[in-house]
Amino acid sequence: MSVYSTILTQSEFVDKDSLSYPFEERGLQFGDGIYEVIRIYNGEYYLLTEHVDRLFRSAEAIKINIPYNKETMIDLLHQLIKKNNMTNDGKVYMQITRGSAPRDHIFPQDVTPNIYAYIQDLPRNEKTLENGVKTISHRDSRWENCYIKSLNLLPNVLAKQTAKENSCYEAILHRDGVVTECSSSNIYLVKDGKVYTHPTTNKILHGCVRMAIERFLKEENIPLIEEAFHLEDIKHADELFLSSSTSEITPVIQVDHVVVSNGEPGSITRTLQKAYEQDAKITKKLMESI
Ligand SMILES: Cc1ncc(COP(=O)(O)O)c(C=O)c1O
Asked: What are the tens digits of pLDDT across the range 232-242?
């Protein structure tokens, strides 16, 4: 999907083709930065406050001082949509690096963070939301601070590529058989009417859709057990689903050679998908027809 022509850089709006960076840029050379991806429905951000809060948490964790406050950030993101007259379903990608400076591991003094954000269309993935997806299991070889949404995504990229090469949608990551999350989403197992997922420690990214799911489960009186499950548990799972801003709440119907709930999305997954559509004020609802 093509990028809308006006992008945000620092606190200005410019044509996307006019943006360039020096080759000595800390995001490029060290992955020394953070990012966010926020869903847009009908030209409106979904879970914007949650994402901006996480962006500032990530920045603080790696000692980047964002040169404006959360309110200004939110205002700039709204302006980005307005300036592009965007009214579709889409997403924004926003990145903040420590800045441009001669290459040195030590933080440069008095450097200004490099900030940019751009938006693009992203239609809902009707096929995967309806039918569910196949996945692989994959060793979680990431660092210890996965709660930081850092630019260092090589283990995630390699895991997702392996999934793709196996005709699968996602890679479910595990540390010695303990399931953490997926390469770019959180993962949940349903057993006997309860939903299990990894606790929000430093081993996973604290998903914004996960926060919404916690609300939906409370409203539906479905217990959420924040306990990690094992790869072995998947064999006996009633349902499995994953969540992210771009995947929403997607049923998982297979992990490696194990078929989950006869290969059909389960009823708790469907309940949560309906709650999501309502919460995100999605006008063209898929779930009503399912
Ligand atoms: C590793 C990882 N976990 C979980 C998520 C889900 O986060 P969110 O619900 O905020 O999109 C993402 C999203 O990109 C991710 O990259």
From this structure: 999 999 999 99
Cα(228) to ligand 1 centroid in Å equals 17
Residue to mutate (ligand 1; options 122, 172, 186, 243; most atoms within 8 A of CB):
186
Q: 45 with 208: CB under 8 angstroms?
A: no
Tell me the C-alpha distance between 235 and 84, whole Å: 47
Q: Is 25 in the pocket of ligand 1 (CB under 6 A)?
A: no
For residue 118, give the nearest of 31, 200, 18 by alpha carbon.
18
Q: Which of 72, 77, 13, 27 is nearest to 48 (CA)?
A: 77
Global pTM?
0.97
Which domains does the chain show, CATH number per domain? 6-121 (3.30.470.10), 126-289 (3.20.10.10)
- Residue 122 CB-half CA count within 13 A: 19
Residue 51 CA: which ligand 1 atom is closest? Answer: 10
pLDDT tens, residue by residue, 54-92:
999 999 999 999 999 999 999 999 999 999 999 999 999
CA distance 40 to 162: 29
CA-nearest residue, atom 1 of ligand 1? 184
- Regarding the beta carbon of 100 and ligand 1, being less than 6 Å apart is answered no
Q: Determine the residue type at 108.
A: P
Total Cβ atoms within 10 A of residue 151: 19
